[in-house]
Every structure is written in C-alpha cells, then in structure tokens.
Specification:
527 residues; alpha/beta; Rossmann fold; 2 domains; seven-stranded antiparallel sheet; 17% strand; globular
Length: 527
C-alpha cells in the first residue's frame, strides 16, 4: 500500500482538477434528508449532516459515533490517542471542551487502511466519572466532533493530522431510484419475479479456457445466495464464485439480523423482503450470463438495506490490494465492481475521497480495472468514487464509471449524467438470478379453487422469487454488466491463439496492457 506522510493529506493520485465551467455543478442541492428512511438511520446509528453556513455544501449521511483515521497516521502519531489511563491524547484534549472523548476500535487485520474511533461522552468514562468540560454536548456526534477538532487545531501542530480524520459515511447501493434503498422502487421499478425457460450459458472447463486461468471479477456487495446457475458444480477447485469471508472479515455490526442472501428478511415480525435482498445474487447472475468463463470473488460488505459502512469498503479494498500485491496468479483479480456511492458533504472535505482514491489508485497500478456505478439521482453532482474519473494524475489503469441505458439504448431517466460518466451500459429492466425468497406480500387477486380442476387462480405474487429470477434496474447493474464484459474480453481476445499461459503472467506491466486492451474491445468504435 502506498505510504502516506503523517503530516498531510495525500493528494497524489486522482488529484482534483475541476474545470471552471463545472464548479457550479459540483455541489448541487440534494434533498437527502427527505429520502433516507428514519428507520434506516436508526438501524445504522446514523444521521444526515446538518445545514451549514457554507451555501455550497451538500448533505451526507454519517455514522453518529464513528470517526475514521488512517491506521498509518496512528502508527506515526501514537500521541493522538490516550497514552495511559486517565492521560488524554492530543485528540481528547481538544474534545474535552465538549465533554467527549474518542477511543480506538482496534484493527482486526494487517491490511486495515482506516481505524475507527468511537466518540463517547466523558460522563460515562470510567476514569473520569463526570463531564470533562463546560460545554457538554450530549449525545456524542461525530460530525460536530470533527468540526470541533478542525476548529481547535487550525494553524496548530495537530492541524495536518486532524485534516486526515473523516466521518464514517453510509454508502448506498445504487440500484435504486434516487440511489437509496427506498423499497418502493429500483430504477424504473421494483424487483419483479419472472420465469426463465432458457438453460444457463455454458461454462467451459478450465482446460478449455485460453490464457491458463479464468479472469476474476470482484464484487463488494450483499454476498451471494443459492441458485442453480451459481451453485458449486464439478471441480471443487473451479467453482463459479468464491466467498472471501474465510480470509477477510468485515467489521460487522449487529444491526440488521441475518445474512441478506439467506431468506432476505431482517424483520421477521413484518416479513417483507429487505430492499436489497438478492442484490449480490442478481449481480452474480449478470456476470454468469455475460462472462461464463470468468470466476467471481465475493466480499460481503453490504447490509440487506443497501447500506455499506465506508470503513468496511475502504478496508475491503485494502485487503484486496494486499492479496494481489503479495500473491501470484491464483490471488490476482482482473476487475472490481463497485455498485455503491456517496456524496461529499462540503467542497473542501476531500478526506474520505482521498482515502478511496489512494487505495483505488494502488489497485489500478497493479493492472486491476475498477468499475464504479454512476448513480441514480438524475443529477450532475459528483457521485464518488465514480467521479474520480475527472481527476488528474490518474493511475496506470484508471477507474471507469458507468451510467445506465434503457433496452433501446436511450439514457435511463434515473441515471446520473455528466462528463465524469465514462461508459454506458444497459441498466434498466435487466433480468438475472435471485435466491428463492418468499416475502410476506400476497397477490392482489386470488380466486378459490375451481370445481373443474381444483387449482387456485391468482395474480402475480410480487415478492415470491421461488422461480429464481427477477427483473431489476439501476446503475449498480449497468456497472456489473460492464465489468463482466471486461472480464469476458480478456478471454475473447485470446480465442484461437492456442494460448494457455498468458493470463498466468500477472506482473503490473503485463496486466496493465491486458486491461487497456479489454477496455478498448468493450467500447464502441469512435465515429
């Protein structure tokens, strides 16, 4: 991983070079507070950032008690945190005036890029026994704690270190109209059960795949459920998808119940499906259809309500970088699909984006193509990480961002559209795999059994996916489809060449050449 200095925010990769004529679009108003369900905020211990005096600021959603700090910064500046019981570190000395303190949630792995700091009230601190300052703000709030730290350290010795601290944002799967997990609709409509009569695309045995190995697509999502198109078959060492969980574990919070791809229901007393239950399985089915000769690595970072904790996403990408940079052909990955996004809260607040930019650039410099969904707000306001395409100082393999098209190749009305969208793919009304969910909703009409044959007549059950397939929409799925095309292009490019080894070479220079060739093959010819 690229080493960052402890006294400055790294702006090495994806440096901002915002053209003057786009400045007015950068922070268009976004009515976020009216779109995030209150129950979702409560479930994740989150809030929508308050209005500020900065007219150019936009809203963001953050975890109320969590701040993020680069792990390398804490290694370089251990004095930032308490050095002994009852002895305040630099951060806690500044927070004392508000009656707060922070404590580290220790990293669980060596590849952690960011460490969580939990903001707590001094009134509950065992070694304090009471408030730590005259202006106690209760309960603790990470947004105000960060503002206080920046104000208190402005121009001082700790200013550069504090500038690297950020909020732990909620990132949202962007398969939904508005880009948020509103259960009433995704893209142009909600998940709709359908039947598929066709057989799955043929997946050739590994010995028949040119290049010596299968291209690997990494998906950071809800995980993958059971489905006959995706279930393990044949060679146990050559399954279509592999779960990364045995090697990598997210910092799961006990928030939303069972795995979102098991039964899809986190509220059994209500019985309705979670808004993003099946999301990862749907993406896996798209990859299975488009790139049957590829393999997929699943990193479970998304909850069933479509929320990802930013710290989990960043640390997952860090784990991937560690895996590839220290491994060989068996550990290499070719494409990473990011079907989520977020908005910065202020024009000056690039800390979180810098953290994403650094790890994404590190991956790009290894020859890995990152594909990010462009977002569904029908806006030009930059959605990150997709909008990093407009930055300067790009890595060897820059990120690409994908907007959604309709089946007739017109632009989907929900898709974001701006110069930072680099590629377009069909993302409205796609058909793919779903786990065999059956939620609590019932058909609108049901007729008792007919005397002639004893069969029940009814209208479509809107959340019965026992048939295993659905139609769904969003730039999440447009990005997944484009990522799959890139993976299949790596194979197609070698067809007929009697090549059984070239994909086994995973040095950055060779991988970079392959990734660029695949992108050229997937883009329409220039007119």
């Amino acid at each position: 991983m690229t080493q960052r200095p402890d006294d400055a925010i790294s702006h090495g990769w994806y440096r901002r070079t915002q053209p003057p004529n786009e400045q007015h679009n950068r922070h268009q108003a976004w009515p976020l507070s009216g779109e995030v369900p209150p129950g979702l905020l409560r479930r994740h211990g989150a809030r929508v950032s308050p209005a500020t005096d900065d007219a150019s600021a936009g809203s963001t959603v953050y975890r109320t008690e969590i701040l993020l700090v680069p792990s390398q910064l804490l290694q370089a500046r251990p004095d930032l945190l308490d050095t002994a019981p009852g002895v305040d570190g630099a951060l806690n000395r500044h927070l004392a005036q508000a009656g707060w303190y922070v404590e580290s949630e220790a990293p669980t792995g060596s590849a952690q890029i960011v460490t969580r700091l939990r903001v707590r009230s001094r009134s509950a601190r065992p070694d304090q026994g009471g408030p730590g300052g005259p202006n106690v703000v209760s309960p603790p709030d990470a947004y105000h704690a960060l503002r206080l730290l920046r104000q208190a350290t402005a121009g001082g010795a700790d200013a550069a270190a504090v500038a690297q601290i950020s909020l732990d944002h909620l990132l949202f799967a962007i398969s939904t109209i508005g880009g948020l997990p509103i259960t009433e609709g995704h893209g142009d409509g909600a998940r709709v059960p359908v039947a598929v009569l066709a057989s799955p695309p043929r997946r050739r045995p590994l010995a028949e795949v040119p290049g010596g190995r299968r291209p690997v697509v990494v998906v950071l999502d809800t995980g993958i459920g059971t489905h006959p198109w995706l279930n393990p078959t044949g060679d146990p060492q050559d399954h279509f998808w592999v779960d990364a969980t045995p090697s990598w574990h997210p910092h799961w919070e006990d928030l939303v119940g069972p795995e979102p791809e098991d039964d899809g229901i986190s509220k059994p007393l209500v019985g309705t499906l979670d808004s993003h239950a099946g999301h990862g399985t749907f993406i896996a089915g798209l990859i299975r259809q488009i790139a049957p000769d590829a393999s997929m690595l699943s990193l479970h970072v998304m909850y069933g309500d479509g929320v990802i904790h930013e710290s989990d996403a960043i640390n997952a990408l860090g784990w991937l970088h560690h895996r590839v940079s220290t491994g060989g052909p068996a550990e290499f990955v070719d494409v990473i699909c990011l079907s989520f996004g977020y908005y910065e809260e202020t024009p000056a607040d690039e800390t979180v984006t810098s953290a994403f930019a650094e790890v994404l650039a590190d991956l790009g410099n290894l020859g890995i193509r990152v594909v990010a969904a462009g977002g569904n707000h029908a806006t030009e306001r930059e959605t990150y990480p997709a909008a990093l395409t407009r930055a300067g100082n790009l890595p060897a393999i820059p990120l690409v961002s994908v907007g959604a098209l309709n089946p007739n190749k017109t632009t989907a009305y929900f898709s974001n559209q701006a110069l930072w969208i680099t590629d377009w793919e069909v993302g409205n009304a796609l058909l793919s795999t779903m786990p065999p969910f059956n939620g609590a909703l019932e058909p609108e009409y049901r007729i008792p059994p007919a005397p002639t044959n004893g069969k029940v007549r009814e209208s479509l059950d809107p959340d019965n996916f026992k048939g295993g397939f659905a139609i769904w929409s969003g730039t999440s799925f447009a990005a997944a489809a484009f990522a799959a095309k890139l993976a299949q292009a790596l194979v197609t490019h070698l067809e007929g060449a009697n090549d059984h080894t070239s994909l086994l070479t995973v040095t950055p220079s060779v991988a970079i050449l392959r990734a660029n060739t695949a992108l050229t093959d997937c883009r329409p010819p220039q007119s």
